[in-house]
Amino acid sequence: MLTREQILSAPDLRTETVNVPEWDGAVVVRTMTAAERDEYEQSMVASRGPDESANLRNVRARLVAMTAVDEAGKRLFMDADIAALGAKSASAVNRVFQVASRLNALTESDVEGLAKNSAAGPSADSPSN
Q: For the chain, what are the domain ranges?
């Protein structure tokens, strides 16, 4: 069995380089930490739209901002950059988003589930008794 020390010291944040011809270069994408994944998911439900659905505004740019890193593994973009990143080419952002989604095991059904759960509210999973 693994020890606490082995788990906490395991180098488990994988990276992958994505060629982005629209930007004339490549971007390194890494897996999110568990805390970052929670933050990403929370960002989709924290500010719901007027119809109480998940906030999917700039969902691709948000994931790219959270996963694009430099050679040292530091984020290239801050949260304040999300709108500017969302104004970039959809093809380029989507190219990086697809790799970030795969690396982070984030599927379309995950996003749909968040949208459904945010619309249902906290009582949807509560027992009736």
A: 14-117
